[in-house]
């Protein structure tokens, strides 16, 4: 069994336990449930912003501990102030050291927030709304095409946007009418190999009406410009900033480099 299958197997157990402890009706009473979500699409296409989805990520299966000394509130405020189009906050505990509390702490910011987790059940989408997320991630490698379309439609019925993540050609069939935003993960989540070139090749096969996000392994502005030229509209970046002592300062200096190249 590969690491992704293990994560998903554990996730299903975790969700079943949470469902029993806090039924949906209870989540709907959470403070954030009735707020109007912000739009990732609008933010990504705003020329005043960077197109970067800046991620708060304490650790990962591929890298172990990245940074466990910083506060989610301070880092995400810095990301937002420096021009992030969106925040991505890991809410998975066992593999990434994240939590729902992290996302709620990031909600002090007035830009869209992606709930970064392994979503396998409608319950997690209700949770996402209840903790203040605006966007959810659906990972093709964890779901069938039918599950993607069902979960995406459910998220949209709650006013949330959906980022569908694919990695290889074999996942192109997961794209559907309910998934207008498609992310191409440069990292193979089963082997952790990162390959920017294969993502660039893959986008030629994605319908041209989709908003495209490049994800993972982006560590310099040159890569952003290459990927922009190839047709990507947004860039999800975690470790490049989180590995630094002050991720917000690292992001601000990255943004300066982006501006100089414009
Ligand atoms: O990052 C991992 O090791 C990982 C392993 C298994 C499943 C998912 C994983 N990462 C999730 C992500 O998609 C990244 O956190 C995100 O794209 C940012 O990547 P990076 O800029 O390389 O930190």
Brief summary:
With about 260 residues, the protein is of the alpha/beta class. Helix content is about 40%, strand content about 15%. The strands form two sheets. An eight-stranded parallel β-barrel has the order 1-4-5-6-7-8-9-10, surrounded by four helices. Strands 2-3 form a two-stranded antiparallel ribbon.
What does this structure look like?
- By secondary structure, the protein is α/β, with parallel strands linked by helices.
- The chain has a single domain, classed as Aldolase class I (TIM Barrel), CATH 3.20.20.
- Helix content is 39%, strand content 16%.
- The protein has eleven helices and ten strands.
- The strands form two sheets. An eight-stranded parallel barrel has the order 1-4-5-6-7-8-9-10, surrounded by four helices. A two-stranded antiparallel ribbon has the order 2-3.
- Helix 6 links the parallel strand 5 (113-116) and strand 6 (135-139).
- The radius of gyration is 17 Å and the shape is globular.
- The ligand O=C(O)c1ccccc1NCC(=O)[C@H](O)[C@H](O)COP(=O)(O)O binds next to strand 10 and helix 10.
